[in-house]
Structures are given as structure tokens and as C-alpha cells.
Amino acid sequence: MPTIAEPVQEATCLLDTIDSPEDLRGLDLENLYLLAGEIRERIIKTVSENGGHLAPCLGVVELTLALHYTFSTPQDKLVWDVGHQCYAHKLITGRRKKFHTLRQHQGVSGFPKRAESEYDVVETGHSSTSISYGLGLAAAKDLQHDDSKVISIIGDGSMTAGLAFEGLNHAGDLDKNLIVILN
Questions:
Q1: Over 60: is that where the pLDDT of 59 sits?
Q2: How far apart are CA 150 and CA 168, in angstroms?
Q3: DSSP letter at 126?
Q4: Is residue 118 exposed (0-12), middle (13-18) or buried (19+ Cβ within 10 Å)?
Q5: What per-residue confidence (pLDDT) applies to 12?
Q6: 126 forms bridges with which residues in the sheet?
Q7: Which residues have C-beta within 8 Å of that of residue 97, sequence separation ≥ 6?
Q8: What is the rounded radius of gyration, in angstroms, for the C-alpha atoms of the chain?
């Protein structure tokens, strides 16, 4: 299996066959494991050249793959609280070919950016708002009789903010279709 020390050859790179989360859903567990390694390699290479958030992005690769594999994105909405954890998300949601422009002028943003992709629900950095935002989306979906899911992913220190706890408190009081993942 490929490791960081053994770069994957472009001709056999599984990542280069992934243009959307739909492409993930046909992979078996072994290939998902290989894909996670390739994603890490691509993130390390790009961040070493352009700068960016390395550790937070490497720490959510499997979580990102699992979310897109399990849920029907973009119909199901992923709300990233910590926007600088979204590099794997960007790689598998149609921005792989431009990922080398990460954090460059007119390149791929280092954070979720709605103008870049229908998979980016909200533009965020590190705001502790994912639960409240997700709850608002879930309430709107309920009003529209839309049974798709809303998943708020929070972590990397965001749970220390009062707004996150207010969102949890409010979500606990309302009976909406909201999933909260504490990373």
C-alpha cells in the first residue's frame, strides 16, 4: 500500500479518478484506504509548496471520505465548522485538478467557498457556528418537507465557544433532522 515515502504514480493514482463523491461510493474498503493515503500525499505536496493548514486537514481525511461515502451529498448538506479542515473535501468535490492553486491568487480557497462548489454550504473559517447554521438548514428543510440530512462537523477548538453550546441547546429543544459530529 502506498505511503507518504512512496509517492503514487500518476498513471495509477486512484485520486485522479475521483471527480465527485459519487465516484467514491463505488469503491471498496481497501480502495478507500488507498485513496486516503493518496489524498494525504496530495495535501502534503500542495501545502509544502503553497502553505496552508496541514495537520487539521490530514486529521479529517477518513472522516471526510466516510461522510461523502455515507451521505448523499450535495443533497445532504455537510456544514464544516472549521473551514481549514476542508482540503480532502475539496479534492473529492470537483476541485482536484485545480488543487495545486490552493491559497493562490484566483486559485482554490483554503476554506469552504460557495462560489467554488455546490458542496460548500457556508463560507467559514473557525467560527463555532456549524451547529446553529445546520439547525437553520434542517428547520428550512423541514418546512419544505425535504427529508435529506444536515450534518454539522465541529471540532478543532470550536466547542469552546458559547455559540456552539447555544446551538446545541437550541437543537436539543427542536426536533429537527440534524446530525452533529464532534471531531
A1: yes
A2: 14
A3: B
A4: exposed
A5: 66
A6: 82
A7: none
A8: 16
Query: Which DSSP letter does residue 8 get?
Result: P
Cell representation of residue 22: 459519487
> Long-range contacts for 30-37 (Cβ within 8 Å, ≥24 apart)?
32/65, 32/69, 33/1, 34/1, 34/2, 35/65, 36/61, 36/62, 36/65, 37/1, 37/2, 37/3, 37/4, 37/8
Q: Could you tell me whether strands 178-182 and 77-80 are parallel, antiparallel, or unpaired per DSSP bridges? A: unpaired
Q: Average pLDDT of the chain? A: 91
Give per-residue pLDDT as tens, 120-156: 999 987 789 999 999 999 999 999 999 999 999 998 7
For the chain, where are the alpha helices, taking DSSP H only? 21-24, 29-50, 54-58, 61-70, 87-92, 130-143, 162-173
- Alpha-carbon distance 103 to 109, whole Å? 5
Q: Print the SS3 string covering 141-168.
A: HHHCCCCCCEEEEECCCHHHCHHHHHHH
Q: Round to whole Å and give the CA distance between 173 and 141.
A: 17
